[in-house]
Design a protein that fits this description.
The chain has about 425 residues and is an alpha+beta fold. It has helices at about 20-25, 30-35, 60-70, 90-95, 110-115, 170-175, 195-205, 295-305, 370-380, 415-425, and strands at about 5-10, 75-80, 120-130, 135-140, 145-150, 155-160, 165-170, 210-220, 220-230, 235-245, 250-260, 265-275, 290-295, 335, 345-350, 380-385, 385-390, 400, 405-410. A 13-stranded mixed sheet has the order 1-8-9-10-11-12-2-3-4-5-6-7-13.
Length: about 425
């Protein structure tokens, strides 16, 4: 077993541009939470079959090995388990999801709708990649399969259960960012263990401890365990462990633990992996006869139309919090309090819109009873010198919504949010 070794992340291991590293330090909690909530990519929990005896390696050397890895061909099976501690939506789905996603006439094969499934529960996936322009990700259910396929400029998604397909081109998928996506998943959603690890390490700063903590066997391969922890107290994040292939530097497993303990918040890892060239047929797709095909531009127009509607999720966050659709826009304001793992974003709703109360009259613009019940199940009422508000909790990210329309959010404890609001009042 390799001995413990540590490295600060303040030197050359944090990225290439100093400005980018500085900005990243302020979003460590957001980046790590994004790993957990925005789909977490392709990989979970495996039992070790014995710790291999590998040569010593420092944390810096292991990070450099990840960065230098040029493996672009692989295929395998992945299991991903995510437990953010969010209560079941219950009637909230019926109250809000009307006209979007699989449940209401939208494109059920749309990646923006379907990839959110990975944010909860346990899923089995098959993945394959052959260079930067050929990738496939399939989510396996008991009686159906959902696949995302990229082959050159063509991007397809297909849901065998509903016989619906989604089609886009790589240029369309990258229109907002100006870059071609490295994988077929929605922008911002890590799609491989490598991406999860790189996103985490890029965001790490001086408030982070990085160590090599022994070895492991993952999917039949020898691996080093890289452990990333906050040095600060008060974060909801306990640690993140990345199992790195000892031969080629490819991350094979990613495990995220909450500081409060319990089972992993995210546990993603290969159960089988092969670094040989995948069969070319995996990256070809022709919609079966009778398949309903939605083009990306049509789906985007449908989403935009829904955002302006008066029902369903169409109003986005504004359906729950008036004015929230403008958060971070020119008419709102965002300020970062603190740094590193304890960074808190203070967000002002345009016009100081307050949290709505439960509506009782039919046709009221106030919050539906089902939505209020769901929010109450998440939230704790709090008071302070700032006034009063509600703290909404998950196992990672907590948010304080004050009654006068401010939002404080971060991967920090409830007390830290209240203190930040008090200090800002």
């Amino acid at each position: 077993m390799a001995p413990n070794d540590s490295a600060e992340t303040g030197g050359g291991t944090r990225g290439t541009a100093a400005g980018r590293r500085k900005a990243a330090r302020y979003i460590v909690p957001v980046a790590v939470a994004g790993v957990a909530a925005a789909t977490i990519g392709l990989v979970p929990a495996l039992a070790s079959t014995g710790d291999p005896d590998l040569p010593k390696i420092t944390a810096q050397e292991l990070i450099e090995r990840i960065a230098a890895s040029d493996t672009e061909r692989l295929s395998g099976t992945v299991r991903i388990s995510t437990d953010l501690g969010i209560p079941a939506l219950g009637g909230l789905a019926d109250a809000f999801v009307q006209g979007g996603g699989a449940g209401g006439g939208g494109a059920s094969a749309d990646p923006q709708e379907r990839m959110t499934e990975l944010a909860s529960g346990t899923h089995t996936l098959r993945v394959a990649a052959d260079g930067p322009d050929k990738q496939r990700l399939s989510i396996l259910d008991n009686a159906s399969e959902y696949s995302l396929i990229r082959n050159g400029d063509e991007v397809w998604a297909y849901d065998s259960g509903s016989d619906q397909a989604y089609h886009a081109t790589a240029d369309e998928s990258a229109r907002d960012s100006g870059e071609k996506p490295a994988h077929p998943a929605p922008e911002g959603a890590p799609a491989t263990p490598k991406e999860l690890a790189e996103q985490l390490l890029e965001a790490a700063g001086p408030t982070t401890s990085v160590t090599v903590d022994g070895t492991a066997r993952v999917a039949g391969r020898d691996a080093y365990k890289l452990v990333v922890k906050p040095k600060q107290s008060g974060s909801t994040i306990g640690s993140a462990t990345v199992a790195v292939d000892a031969e080629n530097g490819v991350p094979l497993k990613f495990t995220l633990l909450a500081s409060a303990g319990g089972k992993p918040v995210v546990d993603a890892g290969f159960t089988k992996v092969d670094f040989a060239k995948p069969d070319a047929s995996l990256f070809t797709f022709t919609p079966p006869k009778g398949t309903e095909v939605t083009e990306a531009d049509d789906a985007k127009a449908q989403h935009e139309q829904g955002k302006g509607s008066d029902k369903g999720l169409g109003k986005g966050l504004g359906g729950l919090f008036p004015g929230a659709e403008g958060l971070g826009a020119e008419d709102g304001s965002v300020k970062v309090i603190g740094e590193g793992w304890n960074a808190i974003a203070e967000i002002g709703t345009p016009g100081g819109a307050a949290l709505p109360s439960k509506g009782s009259e039919k046709g009221s613009d106030e919050m539906p009873a089902e939505a209020q019940q769901f929010l109450d199940s998440l939230g704790d009422k709090v008071t302070g010198t700032f006034g009063s508000g509600t703290v909404f909790k998950t196992r990672l990210v907590n948010a304080l919504l004050t009654d006068d329309g401010k939002v404080y959010v971060g991967a920090v404890t409830k007390d830290a949010l209240v203190q930040a609001a008090n200090n800002a009042s």
